[in-house]
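Input record (Table S2, row 428):
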Amino acid sequence: MRELACDVLVIGAGPAGLAAAATAAEGGSRVVVVDENPEAGGQIWRSAMVHGPHPETSALAARALARGARFLTGATVVDAAGANTLFAVDGAGPIMLRAGRLVLALGATERFLPFPGWTLPGVFGVGGLQALAKNGLEIGNRTIAVAGSGPLLLAVAAWLEQHGAHVLGVFEQAPKASVVRFGLGLWRHPRKLAQAVALLRVLRQVPRHHDAWPLRAEGDGYVERVTFSVSGSERTLQVDYLACAFGLAPTTGLGALLGCDIAGGGIVVDALQHTSIPEVLCAGESTGIGGVDCALAEGVVAGHVASGHDDRARAACRRRDRERGFAETLGQAYALRHELRGLPSPETIICRCEDVPWSVVAESDDVRDAKLKTRAGMGPCQGRVCGGALEFLKRWPRDSVRPPLIPITLGELAEVGAALNRTEDQTR
Ligand SMILES: Cc1cc2nc3c(=O)[nH]c(=O)nc-3n(C[C@H](O)[C@H](O)[C@H](O)COP(=O)(O)OP(=O)(O)OC[C@H]3O[C@@H](n4cnc5c(N)ncnc54)[C@H](O)[C@@H]3O)c2cc1C
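Output record (flavin-adenine dinucleotide complex):
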């Protein structure tokens, strides 16, 4: 099996991982960065086949590369033998990664809440539709409704408008008063205020609804119309696409596999981004949803600590704390409302990998019970989609995980298993 050894192993090449990698490399550590995407950049700076790499990705990656960091893209970490030995799989098979310290910067995924018709073709995640469009999906002159919750709705709606789509409306579940209060508090964050004003300027012709969410999507084999609840009344729109996501859910799978404490949906960290496992740090959205500036600030703190510069990390905490404060107000403003728990009908599919309807999952007591009785969460996505929904609908924590984290071939599984056994024999 191929092997790579380093001082600091960073999993995730989004803003948090890139900031951690550049900081740790400049702090004198040998750094390896692994990401399952073909290019560095994570979600927000997703390198686009059409538009080329994001300048901020290039700048941070260049800083890390200048200090000898190595990037392993297109490789997913699937298993671990403790915090110092991880196993990734890329197109050429498994790789053993040995590291002194580990920085988890795993990001987040969109939270989908199932409603009748949400599995119809043409219904996308909000960031999902943007990612597809960045990589070539035709959106010019398409009529699109954007729904769910969080500032990402406005960011993506504006992006869609600027790229030729016709956005019919933005449907935000949060009450208007709570969103307005959040907006008024932005004066403390001038950069974010400027971004919000710019987005609203692009969206000035687009109707924006609050207290609004999709009730059902319908169509003959493809979404054709969506009915929304808007302040208690029903409104139906003819659409080409529906983009819908109810905020983001931190990605915690690898942290849970390593035994890191998980609480409030994210990997628990202390003031210096240490997790509950020694030698494992965590930064960015996998600790909780806070936006790109918070991810960058946490990445810098984690990078300093990982390269043994706790003094520099403490100096960088002030900026991180400011960003975390913003993250807390964001979470409060866009908290998901109770009524959304009533969205699925008994027939609505909850786990789309295993075709499990709500009527069946609703009767289970916990994730384990649901997996045993229904196979929910046991398909190819391993609960990445239904886990976030059930966390909200049933208040089930997303800490049930088993290796490999994604499906791999039997040959790869055998190789990883043999290497794991060798590692365990050596440590015995
Ligand atoms: C779909 C989507 C679209 C978004 N679009 C916007 C936007 O337009 N504007 C905006 O302001 N914010 C957007 N956000 C929010 C934004 O992504 C975050 O604020 C920011 O990117 C967080 O940075 P991060 O480094 O914590 O995580 P990310 O940028 O998500 O990076 C995490 C990286 O970790 C990698 N990874 C995870 N697990 C593994 C593993 N086991 N092995 C290998 N690699 C792994 C992932 O491939 C990913 O590249 C979006 C979020 C999502 C989920």
